[in-house]
Every structure is written in structure tokens, then in C-alpha cells.
């Protein structure tokens, strides 16, 4: 019996619907259930053919457990090794590399020193930074946000250089990005599953969290095709099986704003019934597909095209 497990935290709609949908479709030889961990011992045979990971970004114990399971052959969605290494500044570089438009962005060192460091730890960092060049690149208004993580935490709209220094001084040990503001005419959030299924949702980030999917932005065929193409390019390059990409559309050009969401919101109460049905259906069918293909003792993870190309070049 091949088992598909889902690892989750405080969610109360998607995990249950996903498990029920898989068990409705999978037939003999495959079943789905919430992951249960009674012990974590290195090595051994994998208990699960597939695990959908919705929580390890918040629970390091789970991330370590998933890496061990992946080594034994579990197909973990998403790849825990890449997820551990990924962050938004590099994602923007990947976007530029693949030809997807992104806002001008600068990486900022944390205002406060990290643990176990002193000023001598930063002797390779010029101080003060070339603020004039940075501000000329991003312009104002701009957005300041953490270079990793999500959930709209510690995101600030900065109107001018004086406000920048005032706000940056409050960011503590967070490494931040300063990013050009895109004044958009429309905005879309896109689920991408399996690097092949894309669902585009009008999205209004300026609304309250429970109202952000209450948007009616127009999506013509040309824009739909472009957003679909960009979403696939980004997720295939990064190697994410389950992710969302957000686009701010300015003068007909979709700019990728945020595309490091490997445990994206899939709650019925926030995304709405139609979007919820789409994500449950496609996640369930994709998990079954991966379970059928999975083989114990082999690498059953998804690796991004950028990383695979780099490895191939290194072996030439």
C-alpha cells in the first residue's frame, strides 16, 4: 500500500478536503492520510510514497524529518532541500535570468548585528552603503520587506529616504529587500501545481486579508497567456510542485512580485469556493500521479531547471 501523507498545522479545510479527494480517486493500492510521526530515526524505509508539506517552514523538526524521508525515496511536495535554500532576492535573479519582468530590487543587510557577530564580522561590507545608487535604482515610493518568508509580515511602503532610514532602524535582525513600487492597473495571484497546471485568480492586495480575492480585474487572452507562460517558467526554473505567483500588471506588462510561496493559502474561507475546488482537485490528482511514479530508494524530488542545468554544466 502506497500512502500519501499531508503535513499541516492550523489549517482546517484544505488538508481534510485533499485527503478525502485523494481517497475518492486513488483506487486500490494507494491511500491518503494526515502524516503521523511517532519516532524520527535516520535511514530506514520510507513510510510515505508522497508527502504534501504545508508546515515545515514553521517547524524545523518537520523539515529535518522530510529531508530524511526524501533521501529514502519519499516524493516531498515541495522539495525540502531547495525550499531550505530559497529566498526572494535569488528568486528575482532567477526571474531576470528567465526573462520574466520584476521590480528593481536591492538587498539590505540587517540593521542590527546577527547573533554571535561583531562589527568585525562585516569588514567586507562598505559602510555607509551607496544609498544614492540604491535609491536611484528603486525610486520612491518603494516597498521594504524581508528577503525570505511570507505572510505579509514586516512589509512597509516607504515614501522617501527619510522614512526609509526611520523604518529600516526598526527592522532589527531581518535582512530586508527594498523594491520598486509597481503602480498596477490589475493584480493576479496564480496557483501552479506540478509545473504544468496554472489557475489565475484576480487578487486585490490592498484589501483586508479576507477580502483580497474579492477582485474583478479584467484578464484578456493575451494577458492570460503571458501570465501563464511566466508562471510556468518561474516554477519550472525553481522546481516548485505547489506554489503561487503574484503579478502586478502595469501598462499591460505583468511584473512578478512574489513567487516564493511553497505553502500558499488554500483555505476555503479566504480563497473562495471556486478557487478552493480547483486547488483541491489538482493537488489531489497530482499527488496520486507522483505516488504512482514513486520508487523507494530513488530520488523522487523535483529539481528546478536552473539547478539541473548548473549541475550538468559542472559535469561537462
Order of secondary-structure elements = EHEEHEHHEHEEHEEEHEEHHH
Briefly, what CATH class of the largest domain? Answer: Alpha Beta
Could you tell me how far the N terminus lies from the C terminus, measured between alpha carbons in angstroms?
Answer: 41 Å
What is the strand tally? 12
Q: How is the main sheet built?
A: 4 strands, parallel
Q: Which ranges are low-confidence, i.e. pLDDT below 50, for 5 or more consecutive residues? A: none
The spatial strand order of the largest sheet comes to: 2-1-3-4
Tell me the number of helical segments per DSSP (H or I, 4 or more residues long). Answer: 10
* Helical amount: 25-40%
Please identify, by name, the CATH architecture of the largest domain.
3-Layer(aba) Sandwich
**Average residue-wise pLDDT:** 94
Q: How many domains make up the coordinates?
A: 3
Backbone structural class: alpha/beta
How would you describe this protein?
With 316 residues, this protein is α/β, with parallel strands linked by helices. The chain folds into three domains: 2-83 and 286-302, Rossmann fold (3-Layer(aba) Sandwich); 87-101 and 183-261, ATP-grasp fold, B domain (D-amino Acid Aminotransferase, Chain A, domain 1, 2-Layer Sandwich); 104-180, Dna Ligase, domain 1 (2-Layer Sandwich), CATH 3.30.1490.20. It contains ten helices and twelve strands. The strands form three sheets. It has a four-stranded parallel sheet, with helices on both faces. Helix 1 (14-25) crosses helix 9. The longest helix is centred in the C-terminal third of the chain and has 21 residues, at 273-293. The chain is globular and about 65 Å long. The protein starts with a strand and ends with a helix.
Amino acid at each position: 500500500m502506497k500512502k500519501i501523507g499531508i503535513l499541516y498545522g492550523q489549517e482546517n479545510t484544505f488538508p481534510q478536503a485533499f485527503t478525502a479527494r485523494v481517497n475518492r480517486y486513488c483506487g486500490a493500492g494507494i491511500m491518503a492520510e494526515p502524516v503521523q510521526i511517532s519516532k524520527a530515526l535516520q535511514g530506514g524505509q520510507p513510510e510515505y510514497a508522497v508527502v504534501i508539506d504545508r508546515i515545515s517552514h514553521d517547524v524545523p523538526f518537520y523539515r529535518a524529518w522530510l529531508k530524511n524521508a526524501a533521501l529514502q525515496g519519499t516524493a516531498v511536495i515541495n522539495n525540502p532541500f531547495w525550499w531550505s535554500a530559497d529566498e526572494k532576492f535569488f528568486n528575482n535573479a532567477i526571474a531576470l535570468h528567465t526573462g520574466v519582468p520584476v521590480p528593481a530590487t536591492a538587498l539590505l543587510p540587517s540593521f542590527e548585528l546577527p547573533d554571535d557577530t561583531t562589527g568585525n564580522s562585516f569588514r567586507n561590507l562598505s559602510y555607509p552603503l551607496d544609498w544614492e545608487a540604491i535609491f536611484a535604482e528603486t525610486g520612491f515610493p518603494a516597498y521594504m520587506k524581508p528577503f525570505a518568508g511570507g505572510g505579509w509580515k514586516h512589509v512597509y511602503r516607504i515614501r522617501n529616504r527619510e522614512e526609509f532610514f526611520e523604518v529600516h532602524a526598526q527592522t532589527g535582525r531581518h535582512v530586508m529587500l527594498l523594491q520598486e513600487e509597481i503602480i498596477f492597473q490589475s493584480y493576479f495571484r496564480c496557483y501552479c501545481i506540478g509545473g504544468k497546471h496554472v489557475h489565475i485568480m484576480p487578487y486585490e492586495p490592498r484589501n483586508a486579508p479576507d477580502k483580497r480575492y474579492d477582485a474583478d480585474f479584467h484578464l484578456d487572452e493575451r494577458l492570460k497567456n503571458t501570465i501563464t507562460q511566466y508562471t510556468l517558467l518561474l516554477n519550472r526554473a525553481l522546481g516548485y510542485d505547489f506554489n503561487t505567483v503574484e503579478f502586478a500588471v502595469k501598462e499591460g506588462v505583468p511584473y512578478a512580485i512574489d513567487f516564493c510561496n511553497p505553502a500558499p493559502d488554500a483555505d476555503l474561507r479566504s480563497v473562495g469556493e471556486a478557487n478552493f475546488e480547483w486547488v483541491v482537485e489538482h493537488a489531489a490528482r497530482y499527488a496520486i500521479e507522483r505516488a504512482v511514479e514513486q520508487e523507494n530508494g530513488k530520488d523522487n524530488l523535483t529539481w528546478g531547471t536552473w539547478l539541473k542545468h548548473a549541475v550538468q554544466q559542472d559535469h561537462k
